[in-house]
Design a protein that fits this description.
The chain is α+β, with helices and mostly antiparallel strands. The chain is 34% helix and 21% strand. The chain contains 9 helices and 10 strands. The strands form 4 sheets. A 3-stranded antiparallel sheet has the order 5-6-7, covered by helices on one side. Strands 8-9-10 form a 3-stranded antiparallel sheet. The longest helix has 15 residues.
Amino acid sequence: MERNAFSPNMELSHVCDQMWKADSNRLVPEVDYAIDPQGKTRFHSRSDQASDPLFTWVNPEALRKPTYDAFVKLLDNYASETGKPEVVNQEEINENRVFIDRIYDTGPMEIAHKFLAGKGLVPSDRPGFKKKLYQMWFELYQRTRGCRVKDSSGFEHVFVGETRGKEEVIGFHNWIQFYLQEKAGVVDYKGFFPNRNKRMSTDAMKECQLVTIQFSWKSGVKPIGSSFIGTSPEFEMALYTVCFLAGGGHDVHLDMEDYDVIIKIHTFHGGKYIGSCYPQAV
């Protein structure tokens, strides 16, 4: 039994619920965007249960918000293939820093910093905390076993997505990246997995901001992947940062007001780096 897998961590639930409520840049379903869930799928199924894209539309003004705009600029900074070295130039370093600057001045990240600093898990000063965020999310590390090159980072895996070989998609847990890649014609949505407890209908799925889906990207398949929809980049960064640092490198069960969710966490290199973070509906 994994720690926190079945009983909620009430302290982290409270602080993450605060961050959820402070996410003023979160988009509203059916107002700022709309999705078309279409058919239900299963893990081993490779039949396409969705002939149309997942996203019907997204308000373009939403992606022009400062934190969204800075986030989108980061998405083309990576080569998806694992095992190949990532090369980061000065322009990309500057883009990473601008993104951290912008998310720092938001409600969710302010709550995250105060909580983590109070636990002694991050520096209490602004420069020290931003340096910690950069190390956690943007420092490159070796993901591929037996490979000596630095081919991955926490940000790339969680928010951008990676490919392993020609048939496997790993990571890729962000709705903005999904929407943009779908719009570019390189993501093919295959269907959704219903919530077992609530037996979620297609109509209810349109309002839900936590989804589990199947899709293909480039030449690979993600047989099952979950992510929030409509949440801001700053909320997701704050949420995963808190759960990674305060959760001791283990999965964290959050019982928030709107969602009962497990944040799945994988660490790399002795717990120094985020291997993966993503939400899973309970």
